[in-house]
Write a structure and sequence with these properties.
Layout: H1 2-17, E1 24-35, E2 38-39, E3 47-48, E4 54-70, E5 76-86, H2 92-97, E6 99-107, E7 109-118, H3 122-125, E8 143-144, E9 149-160, E10 169-176, E11 182-192, E12 197-205, H4 206-211, E13 224-225, H5 229-242, E14 243-245
Parallel strand pairs: 1-12, 10-13
Antiparallel strand pairs: 1-2, 1-6, 3-4, 4-5, 4-7, 4-9, 7-11, 8-9, 9-10, 12-14
Amino acid sequence: MKKFIYLLPFIALTIFSCGDDDAVGDLELNFVATYDGQPVATDGTFYDYQNDQKIQFENIRFFIAEIELENNDGSSTSLSEVELINLSGKDAVTAAEGESVSFEEIKGGDYKSITFHIGLSERLNNLKPADIEATSPLQDGTYWSGWGSFIFSTVEGKADLDNDGIAEHNMVYHIGGNQSVRPKTFAGEVEIKNNKTTTLNFEIDLKDMFMGNGQPFDIEKFSAIHTETDVMEDLADRMTEAFNRN
């Protein structure tokens, strides 16, 4: 009889600790723009480019869409159709904090990766602002009727090309059009715990984007990008490569 009594707590513990199908938790995705590993302030701070040139950033925005967690069995769990990440208006302190989006009540468990598109899927991009709900992140984006497309990402700033301390050269780089959306999968376990918040940290290193593994983007030749689709696609590729999960 004593043995049975002593086993009861163990049996109860086993029952309540195995396979809780009702477990749910929250997930936060945090994004930080960096330059050569340092958080990017959009307050006029200069960053070294090439040939003694310097650049500064003023506006950094981009859409991420079709955000999904990949399950170990090959299926996926959808988190959001679209989110807008705005990394503008940052000083040295707030640049390091970045910007976050959160998702609640996700089924608990271990996921093998997270995937999202940098830019908009063709279905989303073919929508018109008048057709979109007022609460959608798309309403905070910019629709360019001449393209028939939203601007997927914006990187704007200025450059000092002659190293005189004056940023005299504009940089206005807008990426859009269905040909410029890029999917990216970030491998690595994502554990969602019951009643807990899991945070995943991402960075986009703008030096990687503009230097392109030793192939600098010609900021002097291309001061602004609006219609040059081949240059947009090159920048879209560069931007995708510059994204990393920490």
